[in-house]
Amino acid sequence: MSVTKTLYGTMPDGREVHLFTIENNNGLQAGIITYGATLAFLNCPDKNGVNGDVIMGFDTLEGHLACDCYCGRTVGQYCNRIANGKFTLGKEEISVDKNENGVTCLHGGGAYSSDVWKAIIADDDAVEFSRFSPDGEAGFPGNVNVTVTYSLNDHNELEIDYKAVSDSLTVINMTNHAYFNLAGADSGDILSHILKLNCSAFTPTDDKSIPTGEIKSVSGTAFDFTEEKPIGRDIALDDVQLTQCRGYDHNFCIDGWDGKLRTFATVYEPVSGRTLEAMTDLPGVQLYCGNFLDGTFTGKNGKKIEKHNGFCLETQFYPDTPNQPSFPKCVYKAGSAYESTTIYKFGVKKD
Question: Is 18 a catalytic residue?
Fold first, then answer.
């Protein structure tokens, strides 16, 4: 196991951005940059033993800075959406940034994702990233100290551990926004990937991608991934839940959630043979399939990033939880730690 640190680039204001590369004894490599505590690449072998990068994104810091699609970034203080940029906390109405069309708060206003984090090599297999979020950043209450630790083991498991502590009552909900493509970061769409989700319900949304409050069974719908099927099989069906989002961009409710680590998804890409098993201790996962990517950005190896070029499995509390009484709560008192773990395990299935 080893961790190396190199200069990745320089911000417009002169701050240096560093790349930390963790490599295990199997040759699998994970690269994380201090800008956005971003998972920038992940090289893992295919069925022929050839390493390839499975994280959609960019070759340079300039690419990351130009993009607004959160590729690989750490997201907080509240990932996903909050309706109308408002919620009640205790007896106080909180107003947060409406950074999505002037209507919703998306990914906490982007403050966590666009900062340069501090970083230390925590062990020969781990890097710890940290930042301080001052009271009122993007409108969220509390001075919050945050750490995100990436570690890689010889089971080819990339573990992401989150911890945040506030000095006052607040909401905390963090995730990583990596876009995966197991065929390779620049290989085209992900519609033939075979996905299984241990999720028998999802949360339908309105035309602003805000949950309606309903927790709906996936049975008999395009959202049923309880048995393996290609991601693209039902993605274009005439279902308002799909048409208004141009595909899957929904929270799925993880079966049996009890706060303990459990497998919630498996993915298989038939050409490369690569597999992904995803685990978390959180109650939900956002399946997003890059529905709004349109070739505006140039990604790795000079390839345009197009619709459905990657899929996200963003572990989370449900979207708009502060405004939804029936959803699992993510309110934390002063001094009470938010802690969560997500693991992505990579492997191969040979013919």
Answer: no
